[in-house]
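Deliverable D5.2: sample structural annotation.
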Amino acid sequence: MTALTVRKIGNSIGFTVPKAIADQLRVKPGDTLHAVVEPGGSLRVTPFDPAFEATVKAVERTRSRFRNALRELAK
């Protein structure tokens, strides 16, 4: 576990990500990270957009539901 220090940055607050963690996340300066507050108050920081995951799941449901129709349209 790595402790991060929250600092004042302009009118906001933030923290720096140590190089070892940035390497694990495969992020570099300028990349976007998404912070998700989990049930129970924990914070998950990820380079992957949670909204995109929901979109992919919706597409998979639609694809399986309309499989035959999509196959016919592809002809």
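Annotation notes: Residues 52 and 58 are 10 Å apart (CA to CA). The mean pLDDT is 87.
The annotation will be released with the project's public dataset once the embargo ends.
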